[in-house]
Amino acid sequence: MDHFNITGGELHAEEVPLSRIAAEVGTPVYVYSTATLQRHARVFKEAVAQAGRTRVAFAIKANPNLGVLRLLANEGLGADVVSGGELKRALAAGMKAEDIVFSGVGKTRAELALGLDEGIGQFNLELEEEGVVLAALAAERGKRAPAVLRVNPDVDAGTHAKISTGKAENKFGLPIDQARAIFDRLAPLPGLDLRGVALHIGSQLKDLAPLEAAFDRVGLLIRELRAAGHKVTHVDLGGGLGVSYREGETPPSPAEYGAMVARATKDWDVELMFEPGRVIAANAGVLVTEVLWVKPGVTHPWVIVDAAMNDLARVAIYDAWHDVAAVRPSGETFTANVAGPVCESSDVFAKARVMDKVAQGDLIVLRSAGAYGATMASTYNSRALVPEVLVSGDRYAIVASRIAAETIMDAEQVPDWLK
Ligand code: LLP
């Protein structure tokens, strides 16, 4: 459920007409709804609470905007971070260090040290050597680093190959059958408080079965580790719950997910951590864009909009589907292609789409753009970096300004010898 609805013939974010934001901020622009983010955070928290002692860390890679993070911190969410930059953002947004989990397959020594110095709540280790280095860095500081081992359960998450992470051939996690031996070697290190395991098998999961199979494997590992005398008090189940990008898609609800987790983990007696990203943010945002031209095409007209693949990369990278809708629908529809101005044939948001009929100057939205949208934007084709707006009731604030192409040029210089 979201709070983007038609009122008086026009699409609003909560109570703010999108045309007002477009007129005042310009297009393209991302617009997020506070009520939707809050609702998703609360629904997810309540759903997983069925499983006992739980904590939720928002995967901030999905939407690292400081305004969005502050809002989610106010809802009691922590952060799952994958870089020093994300760690600093989580802290800047007011998240408590102890509510921060540091994931990621390539943490640098400096990033591990930053996490230790800030006193974050958990490090998710991706390889044995990382545990050795973290233990040494912690010991130098007279600390014990709270850590879990990320295991790769070798299950097929049934999602797009580019966002699948839990198959043996993926770069993520440790082979689950080596976890016990690695625990034996890392657990005695004085700088490490090795206290459990983590997993994350992929994103946009539309079926609970692979997750449950993975959790069952982790359940067996917990027993094996405890039998070997190891302490297992924390398990991080990752993120990955899918959302509906188009009508007819019915991913499992948070409640169904929570019930499955409760069933799969009932004997574990651990604190569970979750790292949802998309399910919190995706349907809480839209990308508003203006129709620049309607260009005749061989089979269908091309609706050329002022947003492009550099602003929203998901379609070009994953062939993702984003619903397209007019901000002021006329009631008429047509079949068209929707594309941006970037000089790449992959800069196409929709092909042969039956959509609201639009003309030059009209506004349209690409829906479900609140996760992995603005954060994956680039300045390709020397385009500006797209701004972001947060709506709450009848007010809105710019939470990220448009960064002009000229400003981006300021970071570059021509070397003296070429002058
Ligand atoms: N935890 C870990 C360790 C992750 O790698 C990810 C996502 C998450 C949590 C959050 O997953 P979520 O709940 O959002 O599915 N750019 C892609 C998605 C990449 C996901 C990467 N990892 C997209 O636009 O579909």
Instruction: Please state the CA-atom Rg, rounded to the nearest Å.
Output: 23 Å
Instruction: Tell me the distance between the termini.
Output: 57 Å
The low-pLDDT segments are none
Question: How many helices?
Answer: 12
CATH superfamily placement of the largest domain: Alanine racemase
Any key phrases for this structure?
419 residues, alpha/beta, Lyase, Ornithine Decarboxylase, Chain A, domain 1, TIM Barrel, 2 domains, 9-stranded mixed sheet, 12 helices, binds ligand LLP, PLP-binding_barrel, lyase, decarboxylase
Q: How is this structure best described in words?
A:
- The structure is a single chain.
- By secondary structure, this protein is α/β, with parallel strands linked by helices.
- The protein folds into two domains: 4-32 and 282-409, Lyase, Ornithine Decarboxylase, Chain A, domain 1 (Beta Barrel); 104-274, TIM Barrel (Alpha-Beta Barrel).
- The chain has twelve helices and 21 strands.
- The chain has helices spanning 18-25, 34-49, 66-74, 84-92, 109-118, 128-140, 179-186, 209-227, 254-264, 278-281, 314-318, 405-409, and strands at 4-7, 10-13, 16-17, 29-33, 54-59, 78-81, 100-102, 122-125, 145-152, 174-175, 192-198, 234-236, 271-274, 285-295, 302-305, 324-326, 333-339, 348-356, 363-366, 388-392, 395-400.
- Strands 4, 14, 15, 16, 17, 18, 19, 20 and 21 form a nine-stranded mixed β-sheet that branches.
- Helix 2 packs parallel to helix 9 (254-264) and helix 5 packs across helix 6 (128-140).
- It binds ligand LLP.
- Ligand LLP is lined by residues 59, 62, 80, 103, 163, 165, 200, 203-204, 238-241, 275-279, 314, 318, 372.
- Residues 30-370 form the Orn/DAP/Arg decarboxylase 2 C-terminal domain.
- Its EC number is 4.1.1.20.
- Keywords: Amino-acid biosynthesis, Decarboxylase, Lyase, Lysine biosynthesis, Pyridoxal phosphate.
